[in-house]
Amino acid sequence: MSNNVVIVCSCGTDNPNRSSRAIHLATIAHKEGKNVSLFLLDEAVYLVKKGMINHLQAATGDVADDLMTYLQAHDVPILACTPCAKSRQIFEDDLIDRARMATAVELINLCSDAAVISL
């Protein structure tokens, strides 16, 4: 069994419960010693635009910004789908620290040897 986990999220501020849950699961996977990556598609790319998740909170009380800060501090790869971001006028300079653009090829390569959780 692989020690790699990829969390794929396609919802953003439009669904604070699911998007916060994706970031939460990435945090838990890292704390459990997994090699985790967070890949953001579609509306989820807004989660890595500076200032967008400052007040995003799930019904459970999980605060997305606090969880994202954990991922950033621990160098967990935070990847935003390049065409998804560009179509929403989000560019590299708009991204939070330690987040970067990535293509579908990278997502497929990450997922080929990992447990994948999609939200």
Protein model, in words:
Helix 3 (82-87) links the parallel strand 3 and strand 4. The chain has helices at 16-31, 64-73, 82-87, 104-111, and strands at 4-9, 35-40, 78-81, 99-102, 115-118. The protein is globular and about 35 Å long. Helix 1 (16-31) packs parallel to helix 2. A five-stranded parallel sheet has the order 4-3-2-1-5, with helices on both faces. The protein is α/β, with parallel strands linked by helices and 119 residues long. It is built from four helices and five strands. The chain has a single domain (4-33, 40-110), classed as DsrEFH-like (Hypothetical Protein Ychn, Chain: A), CATH 3.40.1260.10.
> Helices and strands, in N-to-C order?
EHEHEHEHE
Taken as a percent bin, the fraction of beta residues is: 15-25%
> What is the helix tally?
4
The CATH C-level name is Alpha Beta
Secondary structure category: alpha/beta
Descriptive keywords:
4 helices; globular; alpha/beta; 20% strand; 5-stranded parallel beta sheet; 119 residues; Hypothetical Protein Ychn, Chain: A
Quick recap:
The protein has 4 helices and 5 strands; from the N terminus they run E-H-E-H-E-H-E-H-E. The protein is an alpha/beta fold. The protein has a single domain (4-33, 40-110), classed as DsrEFH-like (Hypothetical Protein Ychn, Chain: A, 3-Layer(aba) Sandwich), CATH 3.40.1260.
